[in-house]
Amino acid sequence: MRPSLSSHHEIGGEIRRGATVTDELLPPGLVLAWDGAEQGVRRGPKPAHSVDSVVAAAIAVADAEGYAALSMPRIARQLKITANALYRYVASRDELIVLMVDAAWGLPPDDIEASTDWREACTRWVQAMLARMRARPWLVDAPVRGAPSTPNLLRWLEVFLSAMDGCGLTPGDVLGCAMLLDGYARSTAQLDRDLTDRTEPAVDPARLAGFLVPRLIERGYPRLAQVMTGGGYSDGPIEDDDVDFGLGRILDGIDVLISRKP
């Protein structure tokens, strides 16, 4: 039988109004993210909650307990409903994760587009990403399953593309720069989170150097011994200067790429 091109789509035995047969070929959550909560309305009694309230409950769980706590039963308990009742609002956990990640990222700050040049804009873009992930460390653990496609994440990318307007790079090069800076922000946030969340106390740098330096010299690590003797080696939290140094070197590389364009 040829599938119908009507304006409803069956999911889990229920009808989602406004969807089309092509929706099943799209990533989970994409239709809801773009077309709004009305796409999640099911036939039956008036629901006690909304897609937005389910997403807010999931974010509250992740904020309090981390990404690993995000099971459908745990989110249902947050809302004081059964796990099965959640499926009146979202089709799957994957769909809910997509929606909550987009909501948690939110929109980028306005000051990025107010920057005077691409370098300042890129710096603010990365700093804003780091700020979001520091505020919600579980975003570091949320899987990235492909290029961004939800409204808020694409707004971040749109702002980046706007910042790079007129720099002379091809669209492909600009997207490559975005991926490079996005990866730097995410890896830095993950390292920062891991160092901040560890249960054991940080080792005193002087004590660490006192133990290691003689052994490094004896066993052929003279350069590391010199670094540790100079006090430049520690396992403390990432400082803003560390972030700025790495970011600055990436931006220097982008600057060279721009300068080589005809």
From TrEMBL:
<feature type="domain" description="HTH tetR-type">
    <location>
        <begin position="48"/>
        <end position="108"/>
    </location>
</feature>
<dbReference type="Pfam" id="PF00440">
    <property type="entry name" value="TetR_N"/>
</dbReference>
<protein>
    <submittedName>
        <fullName>TetR family transcriptional regulator</fullName>
    </submittedName>
</protein>
<dbReference type="GO" id="GO:0003700">
    <property type="term" value="F:DNA-binding transcription factor activity"/>
</dbReference>
<keyword id="KW-0238">DNA-binding</keyword>
<dbReference type="InterPro" id="IPR001647">
    <property type="entry name" value="HTH_TetR"/>
</dbReference>
<keyword id="KW-0804">Transcription</keyword>
<dbReference type="InterPro" id="IPR004111">
    <property type="entry name" value="Repressor_TetR_C"/>
</dbReference>
<dbReference type="GO" id="GO:0000976">
    <property type="term" value="F:transcription cis-regulatory region binding"/>
</dbReference>
<dbReference type="InterPro" id="IPR036271">
    <property type="entry name" value="Tet_transcr_reg_TetR-rel_C_sf"/>
</dbReference>
<dbReference type="InterPro" id="IPR009057">
    <property type="entry name" value="Homeodomain-like_sf"/>
</dbReference>
<dbReference type="InterPro" id="IPR050109">
    <property type="entry name" value="HTH-type_TetR-like_transc_reg"/>
</dbReference>
<dbReference type="Pfam" id="PF02909">
    <property type="entry name" value="TetR_C_1"/>
</dbReference>
<dbReference type="GO" id="GO:0045892">
    <property type="term" value="P:negative regulation of DNA-templated transcription"/>
</dbReference>
<keyword id="KW-0805">Transcription regulation</keyword>
<feature type="DNA-binding region" description="H-T-H motif">
    <location>
        <begin position="71"/>
        <end position="90"/>
    </location>
</feature>
